[in-house]
Design brief:
alpha+beta, 4-stranded antiparallel sheet, 19 strands, elongated
Length: 323
């Protein structure tokens, strides 16, 4: 049996990835230490050593103490550079920040927070595979945030790839680096797909007076006695101060009532197509400022309005069927 070159190369690559996963496990916060840091001379560093070696040979050949002293000085400087280059990366901390979700096929972003508790760290390069390198320096006792773009190739949770952290400070003779896998992810929402028929129940028939903690286009309807659990923002505090008792303000929903976007309204379609259509109507109803909810298999989100509500529904569509 003849093995293809790609199959031959993929074997060592998989072994290397497994070794890295065991040596450098994922975590939400990581502090670089001796176990996590690698160091090796750069091309310039090898050339520097070659010059030092040639000077040493020349000094012996011509019995010139000045040339020998110069070669010894260069070797000593290289050894000191090893310690300082390693020290620049050692004790550097990285942890999860926030995430910027996006639609499938586009880009999201993850925030990486770098912190330095013991000393300053200069000229740190960070890069994900396929992304441009970004440089940052962190002063002692301070934090620096860095946003890295993440391609959202599919719907769902997109985990953070292995992050390469590198530095050649201070002299560029050596390259020290580490691979950091943060236990972080970005949500990829379904790509919206237009559909003329809204897959929803409700509407004007479900319009009613209700008590809401959300501000919006609701119209004042009246008062009722306070019930434990009512939003404090909807309590009639002025009336309470005048001795009228504790009452809750009632508001009427906008014309159109409450809508329930339903998974089972899209029978006969594939799961991804259903999610894309529901995503389209979440965005449409949000633009219309109309209260809407979502019913998925195993998950029901009550009708509401606003940015937070829209993000909740989009996240639920992205994570289906994990909820």
């Amino acid at each position: 049996m003849t093995l293809l070159p790609s199959a031959v190369s993929s074997g060592p690559r998989r072994l290397y990835e497994r070794w890295l996963a065991r040596r450098l496990p994922a975590a939400s916060q990581i502090v670089l230490n001796q176990k996590r840091i690698f160091i090796f001379p750069t091309g310039y560093g090898f050339f520097y050593l070659l010059v030092a070696a040639l000077l040493f040979i020349g000094g012996i050949n011509y019995e010139n103490n000045l040339i020998l002293s110069l070669s010894f000085l260069m070797a000593s400087l290289f050894l000191v550079a090893i310690l300082h280059t390693f020290r620049n990366l050692s004790a550097l901390g990285l942890r999860n920040g926030t995430a910027e979700s996006g639609f499938s096929g586009e880009e999201g972003a993850l925030e990486v927070v770098l912190f330095a508790e013991q000393r300053a760290h200069h000229c740190i390069w960070l890069r994900w595979p396929g992304q441009d390198t970004q440089q940052v320096s962190v002063m002692a006792g301070e934090e620096e945030s860095l946003w890295l773009n993440l391609s959202l190739a599919r719907r769902g949770k997109i985990p953070a790839p292995r992050l390469k952290v590198e530095s050649r400070f201070p002299l560029g003779l050596l390259r020290t680096w580490s691979y950091v896998t943060l236990d972080h992810y970005c949500l990829a929402w379904p790509r919206p797909q237009e559909n003329e028929d809204c897959p929803a129940d409700g509407g004007q028939n479900n319009q009613r007076a209700f008590s809401s903690g959300q501000s919006g286009n609701e119209e004042f309807q009246g008062l009722r006695r306070y019930v434990p659990g009512d939003s404090l923002r909807k309590i009639d505090w002025k009336g309470y101060a005048r001795g009228r008792g504790l009452n809750t303000k009632l508001f009427e929903e906008p014309v159109g009532g409450r809508l329930w976007l339903r998974w089972d309204k899209l029978e006969g379609l594939g799961d991804e197509q259903r999610l894309s259509i529901l995503c389209h109507w979440v965005l449409q109803l949000d633009r219309q400022h109309q209260p809407y909810g979502l019913v998925l298999p195993g998950l029901t989100l009550a009708p509401d309005t606003g940015d937070v509500h829209r993000w909740r529904l989009l996240d639920a569509l992205a994570c289906h069927p994990e909820f």
